[in-house]
Request: fold
Amino acid sequence: MISFLRGVVAEALPQCLVLDVNGVGYEVQVPLSTFDAINPVPGQTVTLKTHLHIRENMQVLYGFASDAERDIFRLLIERVTGIGPATAISILSGLNVSTFKAAVVSGDVHAIARAKGVGKKTAERIVLELKDKVGLAATWEAQQQGTTSPAAADAELALVALGFKQAEARKSIAALVKQNPAASTDELIRGALRHMS
Reply:
């Protein structure tokens, strides 16, 4: 698995970058939110968090400006029925991470449905499945209300995106936050992985 790429921008189109990484050109599909965040120009060195999606006849590399964007992408393609990478990229192109989380928490189907290729029924399914099946909306709501730290919420999202059960992830993160309230997202993820493995 390719976790991230750091290289020089060889080509920059709104949803596709070519990165020269030590003489190898990687074509990376990116959402508009990532493109806007890094504002790539040829010759600039950038770092992208990546997800390699493999299908029977192709391999596509997706890139993101942050771990949170990649986690939302993975959550959508792995936990929501009928959402593929192209739709997930469209959603992230139309909504940044905080706006997406707020839309799920408040059940704002119309905000999600505004993304290209996402209709009302798909948006309803996203809200329903993320609220009820995965249960992350409660974590995001607690983050908005300030009852949980952004690092804890992001660590929980990352663990769920990696396939862990939300209740197990939340319990492990809560124990780690109790030990070290100032822990970063990365520290919480590493600690939780040690506990849950």
Residues 68-135 form a domain with the DNA polymerase; domain 1 fold (CATH 1.10.150.20). The chain has ten helices and five strands. The mean pLDDT is 86.
